[in-house]
Design a protein that fits this description.
The complex is a heterodimer of chains A (about 150) and B (about 425). Chain A is α+β, with helices and mostly antiparallel strands. Chain A contains five helices and four strands. Chain B contains 15 helices and 19 strands. The chains are: A alpha+beta (about 150), B alpha/beta (about 425). Chains A and B meet through helix 1 of A and helix 13 and helix 15 of B.
């Protein structure tokens, strides 16, 4: 298998893809956001419990490829405990990472998802949960998010 | 219906396209420039034919020739180029009429593709026939293109959409089917071959039953034309629709065949040039068939390209081709089943060209990406048939689909790529 593939499917991604963290229903919660990618059929529901401007808890459920599961799983780990403003700022940085392969600052473990840039057809897999996060925190209107 | 070769024939491998004792595979492959390339450093194996087929030189040359030599609008100019363009396009209509064995050339309408053809029929039925409480009957294995137009029409006309159920084998429930035909059923719309499962539906039998109840039938032939014989008069279907690009022709062109009695009854689908005979501000007189449904400048090059594709394909469209594709499909099934974790989705007795499957522990998209890096093009997703995915309780499948130019070697490469991918995935 070639290096690009190894870059895409790094151990950390495979681990989160196989055993996604925070993969459960969160109840009660303050935000519940559905997201789907109609092109490939990936679907997920993101749950957030936001109090005093801070994401106290976050979880998700759904189905998708290893990239989409891993990205969702890692996102929940990174966002938990962050303020809403910081979570939204992280969304922007993550988006930049995926689109350009580079990030303005150290993204920590999320940097492993930068390999997706070489696979334009898979960008939507990596960003689905993040779009759900952004929509939940900025709109929270109960409308489902779609990648299209 | 494609005749299935005997088990003995299946076992004789490798498969090759043979005619008059000559092996045609190399000759055929030579005519498809796209096949001769490397993808990610590996020779391309193209097994996404159910999405679209590659194009032979005959089609590329027809497109090129039209734009280089004959480019003009059709049915309008008195000049030489317009005459040649018109002749080429109308000759294409004749080729297509011959290909599907339509009784009249006026029954062959150029549209953008299967989707537009179904929308046109849905519009015609809604405008001329449907009353609140009427019923449209489709099947559980339809492509979204044969579901959504009917949902829209049913909403608009307060009609009811009914669905023939499917069995776990991936075949339609033919015992349930006649019970769904009622005095309010106005149309049966069913696919000839399922794009997600490869099931060949017994459309001739279903048409006969529907006709016994006085119900017209639309057959979605998008997945069938390249892989089974199609004779609209023998089938006695009222409508038969397909896309050019799935039968070696260009994109953006498709065919609506309809019995004249229905097409005469339907109002125009779109208004504009070409579809009129006389226009004043008080009144417009519509043109005759087929032009009544061909408003505006048509996709001239694509229509000519489709004619060329079907003429080219006609040379091969015989028992040996169906046998070749059936053997490849058998090899696909047998070899995939031997790979641990593989589950074939859709095990109908009558299948053609398409094999959908899942592999335990790896999502179809990840597998699609890994196979792509071995130079193998397959489809991963829901194949625009979400209800079929729901029925089998899978979010998506990997779909390998064969065509005239595929070989036993291609199947071996897929299996090898799959084994490598699974090793990588461990």
């Amino acid at each position: 298998m070639n290096p690009e593939l190894k870059q895409l499917y790094q151990e950390l991604i495979m681990d989160h893809g196989r055993q996604p963290r925070n993969f459960r229903v969160l109840s009660p919660c303050t935000h519940k956001q559905q997201a789907d990618n109609p092109l490939c059929g990936d679907q997920l529901t993101l749950y957030l419990d936001v109090k005093n401007g801070v994401v106290q808890d976050i979880a998700f459920q759904g189905h998708g490829c290893a990239i989409s599961m891993a990205s969702s799983s890692m996102m929940t780990q990174e966002v938990k405990g962050k303020s809403v403003d910081n979570a939204l700022a992280l969304f922007k940085k993550f988006h930049q990472l995926i689109m350009s392969g580079e990030s303005a600052e150290d993204m920590g473990r999320l940097a492993v998802l930068g390999g997706v840039k070489a696979f334009p057809m898979r960008v939507k897999c990596a960003t689905l949960a993040w779009h759900a996060l952004e929509h939940a925190l900025s709109a929270n209107d109960g409308q489902a998010v779609t990648t299209e | 219906m494609a005749e299935q070769p005997s088990q003995q024939q299946f076992q004789s491998s490798p498969s090759a396209l043979v005619s008059d004792g000559r092996c045609l595979t190399d000759e055929v492959r030579h005519q498809f420039p796209t096949l001769h390339q490397h993808v990610h450093g590996q020779p391309l194996v193209y097994l996404d034919n159910a999405a679209t087929t590659q194009k032979p030189e005959a089609v590329l040359q027809a497109l090129d020739h039209y734009y280089r030599c004959d480019n003009a609008n059709v049915h309008r100019g008195v000049h030489a180029l317009s005459e040649r363009a018109t002749w080429a396009m109308e000759s294409a209509r004749d080729s297509i009429q011959q290909f599907i064995n339509a009784a009249n050339r006026e029954e062959v309408i150029f549209v953008r593709g299967t989707t537009e053809a179904i929308n046109l029929i849905a519009h015609g039925i809604a405008e001329s026939i449907l009353q609140p409480g009427d019923e449209i009957l489709i099947s559980a294995m339809e492509h979204h293109a044969n579901i959504v137009p009917w949902q829209l029409v049913c909403q608009r006309t307060q009609s009811v959409l009914k669905v023939i159920p499917m069995l776990p084998s991936g075949e339609l429930d033919l015992e349930a089917f006649p019970l769904l035909l009622s005095s309010r059923t106005r149309l049966l719309a069913v696919s000839h071959v399922s794009n997600a499962l490869g099931t060949v539906n017994p459309v001739a039998k279903m048409i006969a039953i529907a006709h016994d109840h006085g119900i017209p039938v639309l057959v979605d032939g998008a997945q069938a034309v390249a892989h089974t014989p199609v004779d609209v008069q023998a089938l006695d279907c009222d409508f038969y629709v397909f896309s050019g690009h799935k039968v070696y022709g260009p994109t953006g062109i498709g065919i609506l065949y309809g019995k004249q009695v229905w097409l005469d009854r339907f109002p125009p689908y779109q208004g504009g040039g070409e579809m009129i005979r006389r226009v004043s501000f008080d009144h417009t007189e519509f043109n005759n068939l087929p032009y009544k449904f061909e408003a505006g400048t048509p996709a001239i090059a694509e229509a000519i390209g489709l004619g060329a594709a079907l003429q080219w394909f006609s040379h091969f469209r015989q028992h040996t081709l169906w046998e070749h594709e059936a053997t490849l499909l058998y090899q696909l099934h047998a070899q995939l089943k031997a790979v641990p974790g593989v589950k074939i989705i859709g095990n109908a007795k009558e299948k053609t060209a398409v094999c959908s499957f899942t592999v335990a522990g790896i999502h179809p998209h990840d597998l699609g990406t890994l196979l792509d890096h071995s130079g193998i093009a397959v489809r991963a997703g829901h194949h625009c048939a979400m209800p079929v995915m729901d029925f089998f309780n899978v979010p998506a499948t990997v779909r390998a689909s064969v065509a005239i130019y595929n070989t036993t070697e291609d199947i071996a490469r897929l299996i090898n790529g799959l084994e490598q991918a699974l090793e990588f995935w461990q």
